[in-house]
Amino acid sequence: MSMEKRARRNGSLVAEGKQRAAGGYFTAELAVLFLCLTALLVFLPLVLPPLPPPPWLLLLVPVGLMAVLIALAFLPSDGRSSIDRLVVPV
């Protein structure tokens, strides 16, 4: 068998393997895993005792994260040019 025929055969096998892999991302085992996780998330809060509330300072963490994200959203995307405008030459 020549190298060209072998390469064509190997190339077609690779292409077929990629097509099979692309269609097989969601398998039956993965569906069972998702169902088990869903059942745990539904039933565990009913079985476990309620937790005490967290300290009030810990509740400020998501507020701080949101403030940082909002500040970053309004900053210019080109940070270098905005820093150059803020720095005063001496």
From TrEMBL:
Q: Which GO terms describe its biological process?
A: positive regulation of organ growth; response to hormone
Protein's name in the database: Uncharacterized protein
Q: Which species expresses this protein natively?
A: Brachypodium distachyon
What are the leading ranks of the lineage? Eukaryota, Viridiplantae, Streptophyta, Embryophyta, Tracheophyta
Keywords in UniProt for this one?
Answer: Cytoplasm, Developmental protein, Endoplasmic reticulum, Membrane, Nucleus, Transmembrane, Transmembrane helix
What's a single GO CC term here? nucleus
Subcellular location as annotated: Cytoplasm; Endoplasmic reticulum; Membrane; Nucleus
Q: Which residues cross the membrane?
A: 21-44, 56-75
Family membership, please give it: Belongs to the plant organ size related (OSR) protein family.
Its record classes its membrane topology as: Multi-pass membrane protein
Major location category of this protein: cytoplasm
Say yes or no: keyword Repeat present.
Answer: no
